[in-house]
Fold each of these.
Amino acid sequence: MSKEIAAMPNKFSPASDASLAIFERLESEVRGYIRSFPALFDRGVGSTLIDAHDREYLDFFAGSGALNYGHNNPAFKQPLLDYIEREGIVHGLDLATSAKKAFIEAFERYILKPRGLTYKLQFTGPTGTNAVEAALKLARLVTGMSNIISFTNSFHGVSAGSLAATGNKKYRSTTGYPLAHVTSLPYDGYLGPSVDTIDYFEKLLNDPSSGLDKPAAVILEVVQGEGGINPASFQWLQRLRDLTSRREILMIVDDIQAGVGRTGKFFSFEAADIVPDIVTLSKSLSAIGTPMSLVLLKPELDVWSPGAHSGTFRGNNLAFITARAALETYWADSKFEEEIARKSAILAEELKSIANDFRNLGLNVRGRGLMYGLVFQKHHSLPVQISREALRRGLVIETCGGRNEVLKFLAALTIAEADLRRGLSIVRDSIGAVQDSICHTGL
Ligand code: PLP
């Protein structure tokens, strides 16, 4: 951090919080976000985080996509409190419970039926990577083939199977053994705007000498989150769906980050008018931040034998309660989608204005819905500095991309428009402050 920034009046001073000492002393070096946002967070209300010293931060991070409906949304909090109060089942493996039944009914009524989808539901262990592991295993089980296609800059989790399909070296280099049975191909736009990478994929499939083993499935994010907010074009997605259908390759859409309204509709693939064979959901599905994951599979793919893919925590009934309440509150009609579209327009317009005002930094704006990135192509180190500066000004915002070159806008979908504008104004000021420091230090 530059001297200029360090000398600025600091209302928040989170980095000097002595109450974090125990984390440094006892928590493993593997800890991550605590380093980016060194504050002792205590409460969360809507889009506001409050630390143990009663300092408030506006949240443009939303639990990395797990809090699309904000913190402690009252629409889910009360049903949850009522359920606990009446001694509702908390842990249920995959037993039938009334909480689970009500969630499945709501999911069918508000999500599947209105979209004409006929998926069956598989509840997996509660984290996103559990759902991805199940999806990959199922694709291999159904087809009898092992190879999976994933795409450059993808992120699917950090357990063995999902990590093999994840691009970033930082995660891949941790295993101590080779990651296998996945072939990485260029995502939309990876080879520049003039190359349609589906042509390349098709050529590999057609060429008996390409070295590509016929894949069981492709796995992709419709808008890549951790990889830098890369939205695939609808045309590319449609071509991929067409190619995979023709060649009997399963299509898995990992909607763990881009799903549950993040890109404007419940599923990220809806706007492209495609139907994947398998879908993974997690993060904001439970609505209040409790862990829950789900795999959606076309009925003809349901080759599992009973109990063949188990997990002690497949039945987080507290999550079923809040997930159902969220579906009833937000997805019974199109009002929420319209609200997301309104805020998306504000976000996109303001980011373009920021990019224009800081033309000298060579900024690029990418995204869809309320999932946007401000890309610092020329100065890869700036987003981390801006994120730090924003924290000092009371805004929590993270970075993403292979080199952390993208400032990632992931506000709650329920954020008030005034808060969205306020956060964007903090970002603008933070970029200005960091830019001044570059001018002073000549970085
Ligand atoms: N898939 C995607 C697209 C993700 O963004 C993530 C997490 O960020 C995961 C999978 C893994 O989820 P989890 O961290 O809950 O294992």
Amino acid sequence: MQAFEATNHYFDQAAKLLDLTENMRTLMITPDRELRVEIVIELDSGQIGNFIGYRVQHDNARGPFKGGLRYHPHVDQDEARSLASLMTWKTAVVDLPFGGGKGGVNCDPNKLSRGELERLTRRFVQQIHDFIGPDKDIPAPDVGTDGQVMAWIMNEYTKYHGFHPAVVTGKPVEFHGSEGREAATGFGVALVAREMLATMNRRIAGTRFAIQGYGNVGSHTARSLFEQGGRIVAVSDAYGAVFNPNGIDIPALDRHVAVNRKVPGFPDGEAGTNEQLLTCETDVLIPAALGGVFDAEAARGVRAQLIVEAANSPTWPEADEVFQSRGIPVVPDILANAGGVVVSYFEWVQNLQHFRWPLEQIQREEEKRLVAGFKSIHELAMKKGTSLRTAAFMLAISRVGRARILGGI
Ligand code: NAD
């Protein structure tokens, strides 16, 4: 099964319960537009570098397409399609006036110099600038991209269309970005974990967490949980994992990562592998790296009592069934990591207003949206006897379908 098929499997589980017609199903799962462009740049060596870039615009019934840009060697059309579709459902779950889009460039950003990355990004914008824009499609950071990449995108777009900071979100705060955007996804993951734990009569303080991935999302999730008294017993990145059953000192780990650029080698814990992290003794397991982490076998080995999907698509459908049969609740990606797009929305609004909001206001509004999204889904899941994921898709499909019908086909 490929990524897009997996997303559509989850869609169908919910669509069945909503009695969606076949035509409406086709309309809702088929992407509106798919771009595939060649990106040719001069490498530092003087040689030609050839890359392929993608942008999939899935659905804009509720507003402009919105979603991240990924720079990674696994990026392809199918992955972009799947992630674009997830964005449609995610923006609907937290009730933002956006649709869903996603894209990226097939490349290894760790092997490119800063100059090569800038040329790649600018060339990509040159290829797609007529298809993006504040009212059309608004990219944001994802795996392998950051505020600097977003700043280059805005600057390049400006050359063709004039000053439009709202063309892209996740920009640096000192370059038309928003307070709180960088930490927003991880901050939101911790908020949603708090809400879910409360339904299990538990609190973050004293609860054990294992987090796979220590990039933007994983590290901010760890910080937020740590500040609330959570015990982070395991953390990993692409290079390996570190374990400490008494709780990792996250500020100390941050200092270690700032110097060494990776988690392994952190002295105050035991070294291990990513596979060990997935099966370690913990209360909550948070995948915050790439997709497709849990297949059926991995799901059978999990010892946590709750999964919170900070990454997009970490769970294959067969693993989802294992979690359901084992009674392990999964807070789905389209809610758990929606904090990023919520604050991207605030950044877009601030750019359009040419007015800045303070951090407290942003965090307060982010919390409101995520808590409201969580409560709606939790209530629906209880009422219909479904998983949280199916309830989230049901809510999202209803909202997108309603907008389609109101707007006219
Ligand atoms: P990132 O590039 O900042 O970090 C990715 C992290 O995953 C790094 O620590 C990397 O070393 C680690 N990693 C890579 N391969 C791994 C492996 N095989 N095992 C363990 N760790 C591995 O990316 P990010 O922005 O933190 O995104 C992480 C996930 O969250 C992705 O699935 C992304 O789509 C999702 N997400 C990101 C945002 C956002 O605002 N950045 C918003 C919503 C969802």
Amino acid sequence: MIVDGHNDLVLHRWRGEPAVDVRLEDAAAADFAGGFFALYIPSPSVPDPTTIEYTVPLPAPIPFEQAAPIAEELFAALCALPVERATSVDDFQDGRVAAIVHMEGAEAIAPDLSNLESWYERGLRSIGPVWSRPNHFAEGVPFRFPGSSDVGSGLTAAGSALVQACNSLGILVDLSHLNWAGFWDVARLSTAPLVATHSNAHALCAASRNLTDLQLDAIRDSGGVVGVNFAVTFLREDGLLDRSTGIGEIVRHVDYYVERMGVDHVAFGSDFDGAAMPDELGGIAGFPKLVDALRAAGHDDDAVEKITHGNWLRVLADTWRS
Ligand code: ZN
């Protein structure tokens, strides 16, 4: 069974486009049981994320009044998919696809959090306070290569309140896209395991979006998990947007994480349909090939079970228990 930390299928459906990577008709053969499905409000000024290379300026904030109706449309697009909405780890089962409703950037949450509970009631179970842009709650990491996430300030007062409210409701707080100061603010404040749904190792690829060893250690010490991102620009040592990148680059980041954090803290966070992927993978249909590559690299049955779904299910169970 595969449980994955991030995809942007909903954005494609909202735009009326077919899926490129998350072709649900491939799910059964690929053993794909779902994972985090992002509600992401696109910044108008940002180029197509599948063509992002090197440095992209930080986009302008999107006000709540503008974001809220778009989030409703994105949510409707998710609800129209042939998937279950996951609110319990028991929702992940062989033979069907379960979607964790995830906000990538909390622009659609009112600054006073007045609509957070109604979103929870409708199935929201994961929030990244920011995408790579500032909002009421925090500041995101601008895309840079090579680069550091140590740009800008941390959580605002509203951001701290959001983290605490998520903790008490049992909503996962995602660290991917948060800048350095925001990461450590969440690490200090949150009572849940720390999670980065789709981020790679900065030691192997010096993209600003990737995590340093210190951050990985904090996630490990909290009992959390990191999803390895399959985007070629976050995998490769040279940061180049080259879709001929092999899946061995994914294995390289998995291996590094296992060595640094231990096998209990490593998972997948593909970024399918949200970034440029290795052609060799061919979307979710490539998961079995990737699992074979992990086995060939020496990961035994126990490790494969944890990396493919066990770690996600453990952390979700710990986080959603409120
Ligand atoms: Zn993302």
